[in-house]
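Anyone have tokens for Carboxylic ester hydrolase? Sequence:
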Amino acid sequence: MRCASPIALLLAMLAPVTGLAKSPEAMTAEGAVAGTSVHGIDVFRGIPFAAAPTGPNRWRSPQPAAPWKGVRVAQDFAPDCMQTPSPTSEAPLRTTPSEDCLYLNVWKPAAAKKGAKQPVLVWIYGGAFIRGGSSPASYDGTAFARAGIVFVSFNYRVGRFGFFSHPALSAEAGKPVGNFAMEDQVAALKWVRANIPSFGGDPAKVTIMGESAGGTAVINLLTMPSAQGLFRGAIAMSGGGRSLLPTATQKRGEQVGIDFAMKHGISDTGVAGLAALRALPAEAVRGSDLFADRFAHPSTYVGGYVAEGSVLVGQSDTLMEAGKFAKVPVMIGMTSADGGLTFARDKEALYASFGEHGPALRRLYDPQGLVPFDDLSRRLTGDQYMAEPARFVARHVAASGQKAWVYRFGYVAESKRAEWPAGAPHATDIPYFFNTVEERYGSLTTALDRKAATLAHRYVVNFVKSGDPNGRSLPAWPTYNRLSEAVLQHNMDAEATSTFDPFRERLDILEQVANSWANK
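Reply: yep, here.
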């Protein structure tokens, strides 16, 4: 008989005082783990799903985690991945980032019947692929577990650790490389498939959900051969749906890697140069401003995806147009004050950037010329990068015979309405989908905020459980199709209303823009 771990004994002693129960345990392929149990929810944090991507594993595909003996304590978050955290993040990290970061977390109902198989939700965080992690309080999975869902969050490499190419790396791997972040995501999903039954989850009922870069990742996972069969539903929040940010060619990616190496005095492009790159301090690889590094001359950060041909076999929108994507139900949408990207500094430059379509966009977005530039830019690029691409994905999902649901989240916390008069900014929908508004707004949370969170969360829970967000006593959310153009709008009164897309005319013009750019 295995003796209880010391931490389990301590928790048992504290249970009458703190509400903590006996430390729950689960068995993974690498060994047993002991988590915590609080008010009917078992939580396991910091479980390795791959080996540390350090030393010789820096810029390698995720390697198997080493097995361990006895019971591994899994009660604290492991470090989020190496990065420079944003001081204005909607989801601030609660760990000190480290290069050793390939860990995941599991929330599950403690009282689930033995042998029960519950649906699983896997969360993929955002952060422009240069920051983010699984530790933020807004990403807590308790509400999902309380609703009968096994919730999983995990870390994946970001920035130059997650996206990097170099001739020596291609030679070592025997193929082009560059998208280690996406390989981490697939490795985490494979861990879920292999291990989630030990936590009461059903590996055949996995839904993936991500926001911003995480939403973009969800859309790309739909098209990645290595991810096929690992999930049965997908939720993409503010993840776009078109490849508007260019994917670097392998040649370009490797040149950026060479230029980064040269910046650090490493000119060799063979084995010796690779060893020197891997010996660089993590802080040197991280850098201080990856946006500046991307647009520097020469560029020393590739900026995201690399077209290496095996992990990413093509642009996600091109693959969707060819029908090469997972045929699963999809929930997709954006916030009402989402945004995109432009280098224009005034209205005339903004309209000019759309070429022959500029006059039509001027008529639709600012016919009187009275909209302030910043507001105009946010509205137009938000539709360009978020709304129209989401519609693009929904149309292809529906055409494939699967169901798609499109939303716009427009609720703003009452304490933020003076600060955010234009609507719900990017990423502010997350605590509502998670039902963690009190984690985000603390004592400023109002009854109306809680009502909005309960509503949004219930749609997500229903989708994870059945592949359909609709449920008893919820406002009906029709599926999207080319005739109905149905969009569910979450409103400022904490209600939701399904309408014919009120911005269809704008999106039709932006669709023409996207098609003209794709054909160049």
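The chain has two domains: 6-307, 343-518.
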